[in-house]
Amino acid sequence: MPALLLFREQNLKNVGFQPSHYGLENHGLENIRTVYWNLSAAPLLEKAFLRQEGHMTKHGAFIALTGEHTGRSPNDRFIVEDDNTKDDVWWGEVNRPITPDHFQGVLEKIQKHLSGKDVFVQDCYCGANPSHRLRIRQISENAWHSLFARNMFIQPAAESLEAFEPEFTVIQAPSLLADPALDGTSSGTFILVNLTKRMILVGGSAYAGEIKKSIFSIMNYFMPAQGVLPMHCSANVGSKGDAAIFFGLSGTGKTTLSADSSRTLIGDDEHGWGDDGIFNFEGGCYAKTINLTHKAEPEIYELCHTFGSIIENVAMDPVTRELDFFDSRITENGRVSYDLTKDSNASATGVTGHPKNICYAYL
Questions:
Q1: Quick one: pLDDT at residue 5?
Q2: I need a labelling partner for 284 at 20 to 30 A (CA). Which of 136, 159, 304, 336 fits?
Q3: In the CATH scheme, what is the code of domain 229-360?
Q4: Angle between helices 143-152 and 209-222 (to 10 degrees)
């Protein structure tokens, strides 16, 4: 019988898979207590429960409440305007500028904030097509946000993690607030995108959607130069290779339409269309759950009751731990995040040919 190796975690600097040789010092993060590298669902959930970041539902999913922010904060999102971006970004109410000095000031705050703390790191890919993908690193102070990144992005092979060097990094600290008077932000919440430093800073909001949408925004910037059209759409494909994409605003049914059990799901939200066809940017789904029923959407309903899934801002009975998808008192924007490998109807590759059908969903 093999010996059971016991260790005191607090005496270790690195826990998890072999850490990348490209360490956190490259992001200016020093004196970190313990770095949890690329942990899978089980150890991340253990950490999340021990740290009281959320609760377990009746069927073993993780449920988290995100407080003040139950959706994205577009008025708190800024892009650094510098010599590289001033002529390439469509500046306005959506793409609001912030100076490099203000970004640097917030970066130094977040570096100081994380010093002496545990952090969780996920090294992932964005883009199922190997010819059009970004190596991304997500660094967070919360275990459950690390699981969210692991659910939503594509996992490299374990043997490649030691050599992993990120092309873009998201540093997220929900408990850190900016000072608008000093930092050039609109409020204490901030989502700052620096396309030159290839870094995104998120603070003041625990809403997990800020992580995935910030990465989608940079794919919007980089993909057209590679001959790829980035699309906010869902996609699936039939048995004869008849791919379809579904456009529409949030909540209009893109995810529901793409989850047709008679067709193979490519992805539910973010895709690229290039010379080879279409491909999912993500490795997971982030579906709305309001009024969700097993009859209408059996695949998504089942995945809301699956270990490793994250339920965000959905009402739950504190005694039975049953979820109530019809209770909108927290928000109508309740969500579930799950790894696409858990969906038996999902494509194993996330790629397919050129679409033969293009649909627009609306209410």
A1: 38
A2: 159
A3: 2.170.8.10
A4: 40
Residues taking part in catalysis: 72, 213, 232, 250, 254-255, 269, 335
Give the Cα separation of 42 and 84 in Å (integer).
42
Say if residues 230 and 217 touch (Cβ distance below 8 Å): no
- Angstrom distance (rounded) from CA 334 to CA 250: 13
**Range(s) of the chain covered by CATH 2.170.8.10:** 229-360
> Are residues 126 and 228 in contact, defined by beta-carbon separation less than 8 angstroms?
no
b/e per residue 147-185 (b: at least 16 CB within 10 A): bbbbbbbbbbeeeebeebebebbbbbbbebbbeeeebbb
Whether 198 and 169 have beta carbons less than 8 Å apart is answered as yes
Residue 257's CB: how many other CB atoms inside 10 A?
18
User: Rounded to an integer, what distance in angstroms lies between the CA atom of residue 59 and that of residue 355?
Assistant: 37
- What does the alpha-carbon distance between residue 249 and residue 324 come to, in Å, rounded to a whole number? 25
Query: How would you classify the pairing of strands 264-267 and 335-339?
Result: unpaired
Q: Domain 11-52+72-226 is in which class?
A: alpha beta
- State the span(s) of the chain assigned CATH 3.40.449.10: 11-52+72-226
Which of left, alpha, beta for 52 (phi over 0: left; psi -120 to 50: alpha)? left
Other C-beta atoms closer than 10 Å to the C-beta of 251 total 13
Least Cα distance to 178 among 194, 192, 168 occurs for 192
Interval 239-281: pLDDT, tens: 999 999 999 887 788 888 898 889 999 999 999 999 999 999 9
Tell me, yes or no, if the pTM score tops 0.85. Answer: yes
Exposed/middle/buried for residue 74 (C-beta within 10 Å: 0-12, 13-18, 19+): exposed
Encoding tokens for residue 148?
Answer: 């969210």
- The pLDDT of residue 8: 47
The fraction of the chain above a pLDDT of 70, given in percent, is 96
